[in-house]
Amino acid sequence: MNSNAFEAGKRIVLPLLVFIIIIAGWSALSSHVEQFPTPSETYDVAKEVFDDPFYINNEDDKGIGWQVLNSLERVFGGFALAILVGVPLGLLIGMSKNAFIALNPFIQILKPVSPLAWLPLLLFVFKDINLTAITTIFITSIWPIIINTALGVRSVSEDYLNVAKVLQLTPFEKVFQIILPVAVPFIFTGMRLSLGIAWLVIVAAEMLTGGIGIGFWIWDEYNNLNYHSIIIGIAIVGVIGLILDAIMGLIADFFDYRKRGRA
Amino acid sequence: MSVKPFLKIDHVDKIFPLGGGKEYVALRDVKLEIRENEIVSIIGHSGCGKSTILNLIAGLDTISNGTILLEDKHIIAPGPERAVVFQNHSLLPWLSVYQNIEMAVRKVLGDDLSPGEIRDHVMKYIQMVNLDHAKDKFPGEISGGMKQRVGIARALSIEPKVLLMDEPFGALDSLTRANLQDHLMRIQIQTGNTVIIITHDVDEAVLLSDRVVMMTNGPEATIGEVLEVNLPRPRNRLELQHNEEYLRCRGAIIEFLYSKFAKEDE
Fold first, then answer.
1. Confidence band (pLDDT; 50, 70, 90) for B265?
2. Which pLDDT does position B262 carry in this prediction?
3. What is the DSSP letter of A176?
4. What are the tens digits of pLDDT across the range B174-220?
5. Residue ranges of B 120-159 with Cβ closer than 8 A to chain A
6. Quick check: A183 and A157 in contact, CB under 8 A?
7. Which chain B residues contact residue A260 at CB under 8 A?
8. Cα diameter, chain A
9. Residue B56 in contact with residue A134, Cβ under 8 Å?
10. pLDDT score recorded for residue A262
């Protein structure tokens, strides 16, 4: 018997088995809880939802595609801002002991705060849903980026810095030719973490801000007693989260010198 | 000596502060004059401060007292005229063999060379260490001996006045080490570089050097004896095996290290 084929078969059969158990458990749940959507009803509703994901009836009634795109837009907006601010800040903290001493207490205090705690304050300042959501994601994303960038800088070996000294590299050359190549894999680890958390947070943030977005959509469907849609929403959030993480993983590997040039 | 010394180490102390007002005197009153084109090795037990001397010449560490002059210029900071071959090669792992050398050449000689000249220059040094076939490989893909050859090529490519080697072959197996020693002797005859080698290997010291500087044990280590090795070049390790001068030098160093300044293993 071919053991490779057996291994490959396991990778399909075992998850399939778990999937069947989940559906069975779900069916049992829906027969016990009143109004809980059954798997087949949910499947029918899902077909409807995905049939025309980009419809626009009016400003408050848009297809699921628009909801998801809006959430992604906010996540990437806040995430991009966090990279722009977080990477230079991380470099500074990693290279300068004084910067570390000055900034570390605040990072340690602010890091454990749920980004949602900022939301009311931001809403009050901006009085705009989009800006509030983007800024919330910015605050969410920035900590892992700063911390991992600084960690990357500190992991530059003394030997490489000695090479820089002997060659008399300018500070600018040192950053780009020695420090960044070492730190980039760490920066991408931070970015991958950030994006994961940002995608978690956007759902909750949009439930609070309302308007549009996948989080808003789930909450809206709850208010309309469309419980099927909540389950569909959970599945969509999960699959997109998985795709985002996989893409970040590929980009991170591409920029990681340790994964290059090895046959 | 009537000839003016090329590199002059003049009454140098190196003191490391230990905190709490204490200090550790690593080197005390080190005096050494090195001629141009000379190969000098510095040998001693571990902890005798031989690497510290090299770091002081390289400018990677600061001198506590005294001066080091290279062609009458004070050494106060690192610079490309004193290239260092580090024990662990310290090649940048994200650059290929070619790029590692190119980066150094571009920085140090780049202003005077055209892109084509830079390429020729880099290739000249890659060929000097016989690594044409590996020029596009990354450090992670080549053996320890090959990495050290790249390290030597990178150091020589910036045309330094002095080549400083910190136990350059210490991390290699003895066959690879012998091979690299032969490479180094051949290259030095070609380039005429002044070379300072830190080593703890007696045979390596005799084989490679014009003079062997023997260090006493620390703390307050200093130069104990300086031995002239009167062997013609090119030298061949096979022929030297029973050579009288070779055996005399070898004996003198062993006498110094294991009798006069024997060191117990802590």
1. low
2. 81
3. I
4. 898 999 999 899 999 988 899 999 999 999 999 999 999 999 987 89
5. 137-138, 140-141, 158
6. no
7. 94, 138
8. 75
9. no
10. 46
Among the partner-chain residues A166, A257, A261, the one whose CB lies closest to the CB of B58 is A166
* Contact yes or no for B78 and A165 at CB 8 A: yes
End-to-end CA distance of chain B: 40
Residues A89, A6 share a domain = no
Q: CA A201 to CA A132: how far, in whole Å?
A: 13
Task: Output the six-digit token pair for B264.
Answer: 């117990």
Chain B residues with beta carbon closer than 8 angstroms to that of A257: 93-94, 138
Token duo for residue B43: 């040998």
Residue keyed to tokens 């084929």: A5
Alpha-carbon distance B83 to B166, whole Å? 11
Domain containing A11 equals: 1-35
Tell me, yes or no, whether A30 and A43 share the same domain.
Answer: no
In what helix (H) or strand (E) does residue B164 lie, and over which residues does it extend? strand B162-166
Cα separation values, A45 from A65, A71, A223, A224, Å: 15, 22, 17, 14
- A90 and A5 within one domain: no
User: Residue A17 and residue B133: Cα distance in Å, rounded?
Assistant: 53
On whether any CB of chain A is under 8 Å from the CB of B110, the answer is no
Question: A208 and A93 in one domain?
Answer: yes
Nearest to A262 among B79, B103, B140 (CB): B140
Residues A244 and A189 in one domain: yes
Could you tell me which of B24, B36, B38 has the C-alpha nearest to residue B72? B36
Question: Are A71 and A198 members of one domain?
Answer: yes
Could you give the residue ranges of the DSSP H alpha helices within B114-232?
115-128, 144-157, 174-191, 202-208
Longest dimension (CA), chain B: 56
Instruction: Show the domains of chain B with their CATH numbers.
Output: 7-81+160-260 (3.40.50.300), 93-151 (no CATH)
The pLDDT of B136-146, averaged and rounded, is: 92
d(CA A142, CA A194): 7
Q: Which residues of chain A have pLDDT under 70?
A: 1-2, 260-263
Residue (of B169, B157, B93) closest to B125 by Cα position: B157
Distance from CA of A111 to the nearest CA of B (A): 32
**Is B86 in the A-facing interface, judged by CB distances under 8 Å?**
yes
A208 and A142 fall within a common domain: yes
Mean pLDDT, residues B122-142 taken together: 93
Q: For residue B1, what pLDDT is reported?
A: 47
Identify the CATH number of the domain in which residue A146 sits: 1.10.3720.10
Burial class (CB in 10 A: 0-12, 13-18, 19+), B169: buried
Closest chain B C-alpha to A263 CA, distance in angstroms: 9
A27 shares its domain with A147: no
**Is residue A217 a contact partner of residue A202, using CB atoms and an 8 Å limit?**
no
For residue B80, what are its two tokens? 């490309």
Distance from CA of B239 to the nearest CA of A (A): 38
Measured between CB atoms, which of B86, B96, B137 is closest to A162? B86
B104 and A167 within 8 Å at the Cβ level: the answer is yes
Note the pLDDT of residue B65. Answer: 94
